[in-house]
Design goal:
There is one protein chain. By secondary structure, the protein is an all-alpha fold. It folds into two domains: 28-116, no CATH class; 120-189, no CATH class. α3 (55-69) crosses α6 and α8 (151-160) packs across α9. The longest helix has 21 residues, at 126-146. The chain is 64% helix and 0% strand. The chain is globular and about 50 Å long. It has helices spanning 2-7, 30-48, 55-69, 71-76, 78-81, 92-110, 126-146, 151-160, 164-184. It is built from nine helices and no strands.
Length: 189
């Protein structure tokens, strides 16, 4: 059954929920999505000379937002000074982040998975789930800046260049995700 699902065209694969979403495309098989991501990474290196990354766009937007609201404070923070200059929000990472959002939105809509709902386990309320998501995102963003790159920049781009630090980051990320999954699994079952 699994092999048939992986080899079937996107529009013809069937699952129990597919009958309620006529004409909708299902998510790509993992192998096809991995190959496509690898090709996107290769094209990013070829076209821009740089790999993929996402946290830099958020850091740049934060720095420029703080500069607009409190310029004196913004320029006193040495960490943010590297984000001031000619590029502003026209930096390639900002456009990449916008493209990632729009691509995800397009994928969700075409797969019939774009809904106004909060996915959560039976023991977690909506407010608690949103709080956990916000806290998790904050920790990931803080960790990405501490590690000098997010999972896209470190694991994908750095890993593709065989950077030892990026491979260490990737292994630590998977270990942390596995341990976190063990700790929070009861909330989803």
């Amino acid at each position: 059954m699994k092999a048939a699902t992986l080899s079937a065209p996107l529009s013809t694969r069937s699952t129990p929920e597919a009958s309620s979403r006529r004409g909708a495309l299902l998510p790509w098989p993992n192998l096809a999505a991995g190959v496509a991501l690898g090709l996107v990474l290769l094209m990013s290196f070829y076209i821009s000379g740089r790999g993929l990354g996402g946290s830099g766009a958020v850091a740049r937007a934060t720095a420029l937002g703080l500069e607009a609201v409190a310029p004196e404070s913004a320029h006193q923070l040495e960490y943010l000074t590297r984000y001031f200059g000619e590029a502003g929000l026209s930096d390639w990472l900002v456009f990449q982040a916008i493209g990632t959002f729009l691509g995800g939105l397009l994928g969700a809509v075409t797969a019939g998975r774009f809904k106004g709902e909060v996915e959560r386990g039976p023991r977690v309320g909506v407010g608690q789930r949103l709080l956990f998501a916000l806290l998790g995102g904050e920790f990931m963003g803080w960790g990405a800046r501490l590690a000098r790159g997010c999972t896209s920049g470190q694991a994908l781009s750095g890993g593709a260049m065989l950077s030892l630090g990026s491979w260490g980051f990737m292994l630590a990320l998977f270990a942390g995700g596995f341990l976190g999954g063990l700790l929070f699994r009861r909330l989803w079952t």
